[in-house]
Amino acid sequence: MADEIVTSAEPTQESEPPRASKAVIAAASLLIVGLAFLVVWTQSAKYEPLTVGKVAPDFELPDLDEKPVRLSDYRGKVVFLNFWATWCKPCKEEMPSMEVLYKTFEKDGLVILAVSIDRVTTKKDIPPFVRALGLSFPVLVDSWGQTDKRYKLMGVPETYIIGRDGVLREKVIGPRDWTLLSNLEVLRQLLKADGGAAPATAL
To answer: Do 65 and 158 fall within a single domain?
Structure first.
């Protein structure tokens, strides 16, 4: 009787997990690791900043009269693309120098597009802001953040100077006094390249 009990307690081959199951588990583990790596890689690529030398991403946004404006409509001109907001104090301080810049170089082929990133709650503040500063260059509205990901915006103000070929030539983070010649080197070179000589005097 004792021998029978010992014999029945020994493990049988049926209790061992099949080799096929082990293979499936290993394959599933590799798949999970692969998917995790893909997600991490995709997210890192998503936040890769737009660098000088790349074509500026195209977009279409309404102006203050709800007329659609596309960046590509200005191919062949030098574009000064500025992102700003009404609640941004440095933006407000920078705007007057942008107006002087526009008045000085518009005849040489300069286009200024000022894209407001004010969301729906502060969109109403844009027209009074523009009138108070006497801005005459085109102001576009991006209340739904269409350009945020395309331009990998880190904050406002940010300025992208785009050549006549649509390629980004300079990226400026933060405000700048655009009446100083020392801040206009790239811009003046681009305007002079195909559109005639830019003024040599200080603004």
So the answer is: yes
42 and 69 fall within a common domain: no
Helix axes 89-105, 126-133, angle to 10 degrees: 60
| Interval 7-48: pLDDT, tens | 444 555 555 556 667 777 767 767 776 565 554 444 444 556
Q: Which amino acid is at 32?
A: I
**Start-to-end CA span in the chain (Å):** 110
- Give the number of domains in the chain: 2
Q: For residue 189, give the nearest of 203, 170, 176, 166 by alpha carbon.
A: 170
Domain co-membership, 92 together with 138: yes
Residues 94, 175 contacting (CB under 8 angstroms): yes
List 114's β-bridge partners, or say none: 82, 139
pTM of the model: 0.73
Amino acid letter, residue 142? D
